[in-house]
Specification:
This protein has eight helices and eleven strands. It is α/β, with parallel strands linked by helices.
Length: 256
């Protein structure tokens, strides 16, 4: 028996209030148009629970990245986006946005976008310092995060001297230093060789945060997450067991 459901319309059953205490993200009927009028998201519903890992699949241009940018207020569409009990949207206050952004750690596809300070330690300490921590406290939190990802030895290095795998871990340390409840990873295996992918997988498996993983790497996703959703034309059209979704949509790397 299949353990995933195909979604043909916004799911009214998700609008029930039960189990709200288990949900760390709640999205209902999210819609978004690009400035030129193109529909990017067309009624997205999604729940994420504490400690859960969910892979996000779909073709390029299907709405995946646009969706995750709503989770920390980089974009604002129509509908409900609730993160850690805070309701997002165009009317969200600066205080709410700051609170949510401290709880949702977004790791970009290109690590260089998150590494811009003279040293790795300064980069990782940047976020905590912006939270208002004293310099010594921000540095202490940064060192703890670098140790967590196995990069404390590189604290004094310039980010441009790091390998692709080291940059990925340094960028992740910068996110972990904010002590988030949710990690959102956009194509985290890009530019990583197989050993680098294995190191990243081991690291992510040991992190307690809930995770949303946007990727085309089905092997990596399957090793980290049991659940997947599939985007198509701005909507989630299936949600459930990751292996069944990969098989149903023929989403493996090589087709016979």
């Amino acid at each position: 028996m299949s353990s995933f459901k195909q979604v043909t319309a916004p799911d009214a059953s998700l609008r029930k209030s039960g189990e709200s205490d288990l949900r760390i993200i709640r999205v209902r009927d999210l819609r978004y148009h690009y400035p030129d009028g193109t529909m990017a998201l067309d009624g997205v519903d999604l729940d994420l629970r504490h400690g859960e890992s969910v892979a996000v699949f779909g073709a390029n241009g299907s709405g995946k990245t646009t969706f995750i940018r709503h989770l920390n207020g980089l974009l604002h569409g129509e509908g409900l986006v609730e993160v850690c009990g805070f309701e997002m949207g165009a009317r969200a206050s600066a205080t709410t946005l700051a609170e949510v952004r401290s709880r949702v750690g977004l790791v970009f596809q290109n690590s260089d976008e998150q590494l811009f300070m003279p040293t790795v330690l300064e980069d990782v300490a940047f976020g905590p310092a912006n939270l208002g921590l004293a310099p010594e406290d921000a540095a202490a939190r940064a060192r703890a995060a670098l140790e967590q990802v196995g990069m404390l030895h590189a604290a004094a290095k310039a980010p441009y001297h790091l390998s692709a795998g080291e940059k990925r871990r340094a960028a992740l340390a910068g996110v972990l230093a904010m002590q988030p409840e949710i990690l959102v990873l956009d194509e985290p295996t890009t530019s990583l060789d197989p050993p680098g992918q294995r190191d990243l997988l081991r690291l992510l498996r040991n992190l307690p945060q809930a995770k949303i993983l946007v990727t085309h790497d089905v092997d990596f996703a399957g090793a980290l997450a049991a659940r997947a959703v599939f985007f198509e034309r701005g909507r989630i059209v299936a949600d459930g067991n990751i292996r069944e979704i990969i098989e149903h949509f023929h989403w493996s790397r090589v087709s016979e």
